[in-house]
Amino acid sequence: MEIKVLNISGQETGRMIQLDDSIFSIEPNDHAIYLDVKQILANGRQGTHKSKQRNEVSGSTRKLKKQKGTGTARAGSIKSPLFRGGGRVFGPVPRDYSFKLNKKVKQLARKSAIAYKVKDNAIVVVEDFNLDTPKTQQFLSICNNLKVADKKTLFVLGDVNKNISLSSRNLQQCKVVDASSINTYEVLNAKALVLSESSVDVLNKMFKVS
Length: 210
Known about the structure:
Blueprint: E1 2-6, E2 12-18, H1 21-24, H2 30-43, H3 103-119, E3 123-126, H4 136-145, E4 153-157, H5 162-168, E5 174-178, H6 184-189, E6 192-196, H7 197-206
């Protein structure tokens, strides 16, 4: 498929760019997307949660009262989970939530996420641009020209660009990434996907079926 290339003023350049159908027009695989997003979110968890069990809380281990004849339940220690200040039953302990996912599944998930954006007509291709200095206002004007300023937008560049990244850092609804580090969650989380011309070439090579 072909799509028009715009400049940073939001006007058509008269050029068209070819989007590989094997990447941008596949039938999305929802289960692959689910697995990849689940892994991304799981890998972001710290897993440092902890509560004290009955062997870890402070307190005496003496028996509170005799075993029988009190008319109430048996009590062995003040550290019992049944008492205020006692240990917690089956409380959380530090753990690693990350898990392994096949590379081909992750690749299919990313292509599926991009394909959904194509189906929703939420992709804009802009010619490669650069900013001389980090200027948030200048970057915001580019967003306005491309008509994505009121949407959560993901800008995908062919390579890392420090000035563009710094210019977008204060804008809550905009995020700038390079094509090689694009992930499924960020694509799906954005309402609009802005691709630079060079990023399309990187994506074509990265997802090319051998």
